[in-house]
């Protein structure tokens, strides 16, 4: 494999010692600050991982989160199961009285939301909104939409 080429496999990471390419291990990092929860999937968001993300969303809302932000900046891939999870979380937030927001994924992954026509109707945070959210005093949450 040529050193400057990106791996072809989704979610793959190149070893720096010239070894073979191995899939990145999936994990979910969750941070709760006051009434704001940020859920950060790291790796592929697909049929094999969405349940772990869903569990974190449910744990955060059960713990009293008023706003759940799904931070897709560490995602390496999003499939239809990931899009379905995002749509279900958005619908649940409206039905249950908490706010759901998305933090933009890398441009190559945003295309999934563009191609499915979901991007325009999903609550993506701008950079300014994200900064305000992360620096809100005492976990106070202002409606973003």
Q: Sum up the overall morphology in one term.
A: globular
Overall mean confidence score, pLDDT: 82
Most strands sheet: 6 strands, mixed
Q: Which second-level CATH architecture applies? A: 2-Layer Sandwich
Order of helices and strands: EEEEHEEHEHEH
Poorly predicted regions: 1-16
User: Share of helix among residues?
Assistant: 25-40%
Brief overview:
With 145 residues, this protein is of the alpha/beta class.
Produce the secondary structure layout.
Blueprint: E1 12-13, E2 22-23, E3 27-33, E4 36-45, H1 50-62, E5 67-71, E6 75-78, H2 80-96, E7 99-103, H3 107-115, E8 124-125, H4 127-134
Parallel strand pairs: 4-5, 4-6, 5-7, 7-8
Antiparallel strand pairs: 1-2, 3-4
Helix pairs in contact: 1-2
Structure description:
- The chain has helices at residues 50-62, 80-96, 107-115, 127-134, and strands at residues 12-13, 22-23, 27-33, 36-45, 67-71, 75-78, 99-103, 124-125.
- It contains four helices and eight strands.
- Helix 1 runs parallel beside helix 2.
- The protein is of the alpha/beta class.
Which short descriptors sum up this protein?
145 residues; alpha/beta; Transcription Regulator spoIIAA; 6-stranded mixed beta sheet; two-stranded antiparallel sheet; 4 helices; globular
